[in-house]
Amino acid sequence: MKIAPRSVSGFLASPPAAVRAVLLYGPDAGLVQERAGLLWKRVVEDVSDPFRVVDLGADTLASEPARLLDEALSLSMFGGRRLLRLRDADERCVTALRGLLEGPESDALTILEAGDLKPSSALRQLFEKGDERTGAIACYVDDAGDVARLLRDAMRAEGKELSRDAELYLASCLTGDRQLARRAIEKLVLYMGDERTVTLDHAEASVGDSGELSLDEVAFSCVDGDGGALDNALDRAFAMGENSVRILRVVQSHILRLHLVSGLLAEGAGMDQATSQLRPPLFFKIKDRFTAQARRHAPARLSRALQRLMQTEAECKSGRGADPDLLCRQTLVGLSVFFKPR
Predict the structure, then answer these.
(1) Nearest to residue 99, comparing CAs of 118, 126, 129, 117?
(2) Predicted local confidence at residue 176, as pLDDT
(3) Which end of the chain is less packed: N or C, by CB atoms within 10 Å?
(4) What is the pLDDT of residue 84?
(5) Of the candidates 239, 215, 240, the residue with the CA atom closest to the CA atom of residue 332
């Protein structure tokens, strides 16, 4: 069965007793791993326990489809519910999973971690159209609003408060990958020590100075049409280990926000009125640069750029053709030429 977004938190906190297999899929690998971890804890305390936890690969299940059911029916040497982990799941696992669901009942829980599956994927359909024994949870990349909520919840749990400027700054920096955002939040908590209120200075010192997570400069320099600045920003991003798909999505998010404001301006709205529709609001340090871009580029022009970015993202995730980092760079450099002031 397909788990609706509003029901995901409750499902992860207390999976229904009937559930035997859960598919976690989507473009945000960090969020997939985080949610898988929440489910593991409902079954075993130690995910490295060799007696209760079994790691299986797609290659193994493709050659031995009966292996999954055999493992599910096996008893733990020292008792307790068994956990079957299947990472990098894909279409090759479908036969084994059908065998599991059609075979004798067991209390083992199977957790599958997969990438961004299309709606037509046989694996995704098996889970979304299944009965109460299956669960399918989509894990899409957080936008700035999602990250802002994550920040507030995390700081509240630590007994700390976020200033408005710090929240806007961090939300703009940490979009794109839940796991990276979590690490940045942990780093910020350690940096704060006993201080209670997180200010903009704290946020910049903890996250901004390292350049570890902020991809704003890639997006801004691309839309500014500044090829030199874009090259430098991309070099830094890749040197930090950033993923090409995440970089493309950050640029997409930036252009989507520009598209909203540019569209409102074209309809006769003033700049203040147009930017007031953005959620989260513009961080004051980037406001002038953002509004200059929104004035310069019409909605149709921004739409063409978005189409190219989405096409490149699909090519990067297909596993075919050129290196994803090269595809990402070629597309963004091409867009910087497209956006270059005439």
Answers:
(1) 126
(2) 65
(3) C
(4) 94
(5) 215
| Cβ neighbour number for residue 185 with a 10 Å cutoff | 21
The single-letter code of the amino acid at 286 is I
Q: Where in the chain is the domain with CATH 3.40.50.300?
A: 5-138
Residue 51 token pair = 């007696």
Q: Give strand pairing partners of 136.
A: 2, 23
- What's the confidence (pLDDT) of residue 12? 93
The CATH 1.10.8.60 domain(s) of the chain lie at: 144-208
CATH of 216-339, one of 1.20.272.10, 3.10.20.30, 3.40.50.300, 3.30.70.980: 1.20.272.10
> Cα separation of 252 and 200, whole Å?
26
| Angle at alpha carbon of residue 319, lines to 3 and 249, rounded to 5° | 60
pLDDT of residue 27: 79
Write out the two tokens for 342.
């005439």
Contact 136, 2 (CB under 8 A): yes
Q: What superfamily in CATH does domain 5-138 come from?
A: P-loop containing nucleotide triphosphate hydrolases (3.40.50.300)
Task: Give the tokens for residue 113.
Answer: 């971690």
pTM, two decimals, is 0.58
Helix (H) / strand (E) element for 134: namely strand 134-138
pLDDT of residue 212: 43
**For position 240, what pLDDT does the model report?**
75
Q: Which CA distances in Å does 247 have to 7, 182, 213, 237, 322?
A: 29, 18, 10, 8, 17
CATH architecture for segment(s) 144-208: Orthogonal Bundle (1.10)
- Are 54 and 82 within 8 A, CB to CB? yes
pLDDT averaged per 10 residues in sequence order, the chain, 342 residues: 90 91 88 89 84 89 92 83 90 94 91 90 93 91 78 91 87 74 86 90 73 72 93 85 86 92 94 87 85 95 93 82 88 95 80
What is the distance between the alpha carbons of residues 226 and 234, in angstroms, rounded to a whole number? 12
- Give the pLDDT score at 211: 46
